[in-house]
Amino acid sequence: MDTIAENIKQLREKIPANVKLIAVSKFKPASIIKEAYLAGQCVFGENKAQEMTEKYQVLPKDIEWHFIGHLQTNKIKYIIPYVTMIHSVDSMKLLREINTLSEKNNRIVDCLIQFHIATEASKFGFSFSEVEDALSDKTFYQWKNIRICGVMGMATFTDNQSLIRSEFKTLKTYFLRLKENYFIDQPSFKEISMGMTDDYLIAIEEGATMVRIGSAIFGSRTLN
Ligand SMILES: *Cc1c(COP(=O)(O)O)cnc(C)c1O
Question: How many angstroms separate the alpha carbon of residue 134 from the centre of ligand 1?
Fold first, then answer.
């Protein structure tokens, strides 16, 4: 068995069946993604709109493409026709634009609200009060071509396991509060996207429903 297939098999043994594995294939060529696909992985995550679109065009059409990076409004148009879920909605302006383009494409696009849970200043995402403000505004409910399916977050890049765990707990709390206050009657609001190669086991313990894993499948990003 080749290495990618072996890596996927080993991950699947550690990830419960009800947690979705998103194989983060950023910077990897289509040929490598095809290897993972042939090993049974058909959900991939990318963080650049044009790169994802080029891969979408040449790869099998039953692949689910998840967008996980910071999305610029002028790039939304490339991915809207085919994207399965946008994990990284980090502003209401972006969400409004996604809605507009989804409407033009006659689609309803699944989105997650990205929260800033890490201590680093550089990571994108909302604070909880920003989201509450937006959800209290009626204009949000006029956007019929987006479906908010849950939350996403990235923990601090650190060896401090208890800090990572507490950040994931925070994200879970945000999820529950939003669910109870704004989405209680919406069964599709159910996803918590958290956990990467170094912290996915903690994320799963803290309630992740989706993990986004790159290096553990494809090897270190910088060496390829
Ligand atoms: C790159 C990336 C991942 C995967 O990271 P690994 O450590 O390689 O597993 C997950 N989420 C986001 C948002 C990423 O940019």
Answer: 27
